[in-house]
DNA sequence: ATTGTTGTACTAATATCATAGAACATTAGA
DNA sequence: TCTAATGTTCTATGATATTAGTACAACAAT
């Protein structure tokens, strides 16, 4: 089985996190996770190809924004809220609160 | 004289702002402005060519992060704190606070 | 076993970005 | 007017990012 690399908390970079979140599709994804808790990839209602979704998921994972856990055929995605709040207090909630009004 | 376009407050996009701030050089720039108030471009202590700095300043300006004002031969750069705090409450301070510890 | 689901890997096309050298424009000041 | 200071524009280049098509592997359900 393939090993999915996740950065350690202390290796999470602000610029990488901001870049990972600077895409509307990825903002949508983390917004969905934040609202509905951890969930498999196929739950996300984004108008893109599967391979493209994989790319975005990987981008978020490698930046340290999400945690990916394998469960059968599914990959369960969870937000690394605790790590993010420790590294960048207030950042995640500030971004997620924006989505509640007019996202994009 | 050249007209410098700035987006209106209501046209500022979260993804664009996050992208503008996802570069170490640009994080440095806004960190400097936040700490020392508005200042001309040549004040920034970044190891890049003038043309590159112009590119970064434009990226920040077009995303709605900074306000550029011409004063003689100088371009004075200011943070659009009020607009950003209105559009994305808490975002700017969360990002700037990170820089106070370990930036990059 | 067969079939369908789920997601990755590989590959490729296209687009965007960061960087900087050179030339140019504008302004201030001597 | 001449010169220095300040930035922009033009252009080019190498690096990444985005997107998707195809194939493949792991698993579930029948």
Automatic annotation (TrEMBL), chains A, B:
SUPFAM superfamilies the UniProt entry points to: Winged helix' DNA-binding domain
Keywords: DNA-binding, Transcription, Transcription regulation
Pfam family, one: HTH_20
InterPro entries: ArsR-like_HTH (IPR011991), HTH_ArsR_DNA-bd_dom (IPR001845), HTH_MetalResp_TranReg (IPR051081), WH-like_DNA-bd_sf (IPR036388), WH_DNA-bd_sf (IPR036390)
Domain HTH arsR-type: 6-99
Keyword Transcription regulation: yes
One MF annotation (Gene Ontology) recorded for this entry: DNA binding
Descriptive protein name: Helix-turn-helix domain-containing protein
Species name: Paenibacillus monticola
């Amino acid at each position: 089985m393939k090993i999915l690399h996740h950065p350690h908390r202390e290796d999470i970079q602000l610029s990488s996190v901001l870049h990972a979140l600077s895409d509307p599709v990825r903002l949508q994804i983390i917004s969905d996770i934040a609202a509905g808790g951890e969930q498999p990839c196929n739950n996300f209602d984004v108008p893109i190809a599967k391979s493209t979704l994989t790319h975005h998921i990987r981008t978020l994972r490698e930046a340290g924004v999400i945690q990916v856990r394998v469960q059968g055929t599914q990959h369960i995605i969870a937000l690394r809220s605790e790590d993010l709040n420790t590294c960048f207090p207030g950042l995640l909630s500030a971004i997620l609160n924006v989505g509640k009004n007019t996202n994009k």
